[in-house]
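Quick one: structure for this chain?
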Amino acid sequence: MNFTSIGSPITHSVLGSKVAPKTMRDVYHVLFRHQANVLLFFFSVLLAVVTGTFLAPRIYKSDAEILIKLGRQSAVIDPTVAASGQVVSVQQNRETEVNSEMIILQSQEMAERVVTSVGADRILEKDDEPVKPMAGDALLRATIRERDQAVRTVMQSVKIEALPRSNIIALSYESQDPKLSQQVLNTLIEAYQDKHISAHWTPGSYEFFLQQTEQVRQALLRTENQLLELKNRLGISSVEDQQRTLRDQYSYLRQQVEGTDSSVAASKAKVDSVRAQLAKFPETMTREVQKNVANQAYDYMRQDLFRLQLKQQEILSIYKPDTAQAKEIARQVAEAEKMLKEQASNRTQTVVGTNPIFMELTSSLVAEETVHSALVAKRTVLGTQMDKLMNDFRDLNEFEYSVKNLEREKDVLSANYSKYKNSLEEARIDEALKTQRISSISIVQEPSLPVRHVKPRMLRNLAAGLVLAVIGSLALAFILEYLDHTVNRPEDVEYSIMLPVLLDVPARFFKAESCEAPGAPPGEGGGAGRMFRDAAVKLGTSIKEQFAGKPEPPRTPESRAYARVHTERFYDNMWDRLFLKRSELSKPPRSIAVTASYDGEGVSTVAANLAISLAKNSREKVLLIDANLGSPCMQEVFCTLGDSHGLSDLIAGRTDYVEPVAQPDYPRLWLLPAGGALTGDDACIDPRYMEAVVGKYRDGFGYIVIDCPAVWRSNVPTRIATVADGVILVVEAERVRVQIVERTKERLEEVNARILGVVLNKRRFYIPSWLYRQI
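Got it. Here's what it folds into:
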């Protein structure tokens, strides 16, 4: 379809778009269009927030603060852990310690202790509620359920947080009773202090370490006594000193042995050398020879024999001859006699003299052998002394091994004793701290007794309600606009239906009028829905007028005449769009059918005003045909027809020609009324009959305007559309959905109707004039 033929300023590329561009004017249009709903929602939300704020129960908040000091729990470890063996030091920051204490505070056990102390009814604030009589299992289940609910209430209502960059834990509790808030926090802090002490205390540790310390002490005493007895038995006070002395003695003896060995070797070599020299020289040398020299040896032996014989006589006088003493002396006498017989009484004596060299060598040998013997004896003594010293070393080593074992055992026992002693002291301190309820927890701020309530917060709730009301109202307006599929602006027609808008008629032209002016005829549309819409229109108009600051003038004959003239001038714009701004190549429409999708959209009013505008501006005769045979209304619009014949008579064949009725107020306007009602087959207009009717009046009139019924009420508009040069589709704003208009357009295009454009009827302008001029 070529929109340029009717002077549409919208190009084809723009019409192809399904989404109209959004501007601030569109935003204001949405807001002011749904201003009633927006204001209703806004004030409803504000009222609800204000009502809820004033009716909500007053909540009081008690605050307290706890300081986690650097105490025993941070400085030492558990005594049982310290006594168990090697301990790996793990660095923990203060944040970890504070978090651990917060976990204890947030535990269910703490909440249960609070409920036990304060009472479930007190926590749940059911003091004023009547108690239902129950017994047995029902009472037990109700008690358990109530206690569990109270515990959950405490856990949810107690707020615990660690203050940043500090060791302080802040606690708070909210309830409707200020005294209850303070009491709950007091009870919670007392229970927490007990739990903190018991959590850092190891039960039974003092008795255990007391027993272990005594056992280790007794074992240590036994080991010390054994070590003392061993040292006393060996006469050694210090093994190290004795070892040092023996090492010195051994070193000295070692040096002496080495020196003696060297001296013995040198002496032996000297003795061997002297002996070798001595073997080369004779011991004696002959000096002279003497014969018949008395043998002194014979004389001496004879004397010895005489002494033995005398002795034998003495023995025989005492003992018998067969005794051992007698036999022994007899044997000696016999041997002496035998030796005497072997010796001669006289002998030749050679006087031999000593060899001086031999004597000198012998003297040297004897002297050296004496030295050698002394050295050998000394070496033997030194060896004996070294052996004894080695034995002493072995004994000392064995003693040292025993001593070291005892000392090692003593050290172990001593270390264990010190460890157990320290752990015993730690356990004793823990026991004393628990007894005295002393811990590293300090109450910086006692639970406060609140004076003012913290909830509800009036200003904050009102501010939040105001923000919620504003945002919700805006969102509601756009949601309603999104859900609304009706046509309400020319952009909806041009961008969605892709038809040019010939005219958008304001809703102010359609107020109930008498027959003095072609306004909205009474009875067009109707029903309760119409009444409500009219009421809403009046309400919106009054609000808009209040915004604009220009109240509507009273309805007087002068004002109605002025409104009629203003309406006629307004419809002149459609004349301009249809004929003055058309392309020279396009054929101007001479017969125009006006229709709509549904009844009550103002088709008759638009057709009448179009005919009036054509009669005023074209200077040609204009015929207005009322083809709405089912419910004609042109007689009521112009009020000058009486009981004239009309279109129905021509179609039914009751007459060949009906003289149109001239309008005195408009010299070039004639009206062909609908005539009498049609029945049977005559009620359906045949296109051939309609073409014949139009042909009868085409030569006598420059323009023919046909007022048709709604497309979806009968098939008359589609049949008339095949006869007319063009069709104008009337769409009532905010009533007909876009999809219905599209279907109407498709139905007209199916019969090859030339749709000239759309008249957006009863359009409401929601934006106040003063604001509209600014944007």
